[in-house]
Design brief:
Layout lengths: L2 E5 L2 E4 L4 E8 L8 E6 L6 E6 L5 E3 L7 E6 L4 E6 L8 E7 L4 E2 L3 E6 L1
Parallel strand pairs: 2-11
Antiparallel strand pairs: 1-3, 3-8, 4-5, 4-9, 5-6, 7-8, 9-10, 9-11
């Protein structure tokens, strides 16, 4: 059983930055692909970015060039550096292990104009 805990969310003005963290416990996750998802009010949960266990990354078009996903296998953690934030980035951000039903509780990101 893997337990995921996100942190780092908050409220920022447009153009600002935030760094989200996802800490895993209960098992090592270094051989799993992981991802960040987000869900805005009234919308479906969507993939933001993913990272393989070797560090290969993919990004959703709306965040390309602004967000950077990374992981530190030694710390059993994953991160999402978010820059040039826009109001449309406002959502609850979730950490997920791809292919398994492991999700964090989410962390709120609010971007004001």
């Amino acid at each position: 059983q893997v337990h995921l805990v996100e942190s780092g969310g908050g409220s920022v003005q447009a153009g600002g930055s935030l760094r989200l963290s996802c800490a895993a416990s209960g098992s090592t996750v270094d051989h799993f692909a992981m991802a960040w998802y987000r869900q805005a009010p009234g919308k479906q949960r969507e993939l933001v970015a993913s990272i393989t266990w070797t560090g290969g990354t993919t990004y959703a078009d709306p965040v390309k060039g602004r967000f950077t996903i990374s992981r530190d296998n030694a710390k059993n953690s994953m991160y999402l550096q978010m820059k040039s934030l826009k109001p449309e980035d406002t959502a609850v951000y979730y950490c997920h292990i791809l292919g398994f039903n492991y999700w964090g509780q989410g962390t709120q990101v609010t971007v004001s104009s």
